[in-house]
């Protein structure tokens, strides 16, 4: 069964608030591949490990029926509580035991979740539920994210990565699949016609609060918080303070007038 790391109601609420939908370039990469393989238009798309539904909402715009599945009841409750298109529904179930008839699913997706699955069982289940000619699209965000804000991009990125390095010390062993850009997961998929794309770059607009909230939503941070709540909370508070300082400096620099120079 898939690893269960997102069970708490509080964690699910943070996840829903701060996790972002797949970026535009990733969306277009997936849709282009599905068009190339003539997998769309499609009747049924299933988003496995959907969390609180950020990726599921994207699918709802392109498929007749979309079902998001997740092993976490708390995550599915958050997904159901979020407004969505009428063609989207949600189910609680393991990724390795999908409640769909054989050959009934046109498109199977998983956004930054497949590293939690039991890969061999999930691969067999994907093979079982997909119709002939159906497609699987699995993606993850890498951990080497950078922040961009005026002339302070390098400083903001340094602050972010210093915090990130501390949080990653508490990572589950399965995060290794993310660190190798899902190469092992790609190789485990039992489909001869498959493609691995690693050069997708998506800028995601975020506030300082959003960046810190994203880090708080991760399983690694939640493990850190269980082990040492004071240190974990202090780390995020200090990171937010440092990022906010650099952001204000970048805004001040950006507002300087050539005819009226400002000392900083």
From TrEMBL:
List the GO molecular function terms. S-adenosylmethionine-dependent methyltransferase activity
Q: Return the SUPFAM superfamilies for the record.
A: S-adenosyl-L-methionine-dependent methyltransferases
What are the UniProt keywords, alphabetically? Methyltransferase, Transferase
Q: Which InterPro entries match?
A: Diverse_substrate_MTase (IPR051052), Methyltransf_11 (IPR013216), SAM-dependent_MTases_sf (IPR029063)
The organism's place on the tree of life at top rank: Eukaryota
Record-annotated membrane-spanning stretches: none
- Domain Methyltransferase type intervals: 46-138
An example of a Gene Ontology BP annotation on this entry? methylation
Pfam families, alphabetized: Methyltransf_11
Coiled-coil intervals: none
Q: Does the keyword tRNA-binding apply?
A: no
Instruction: State the family it belongs to.
Output: Belongs to the methyltransferase superfamily.
Protein name according to UniProt = Methyltransferase type 11 domain-containing protein
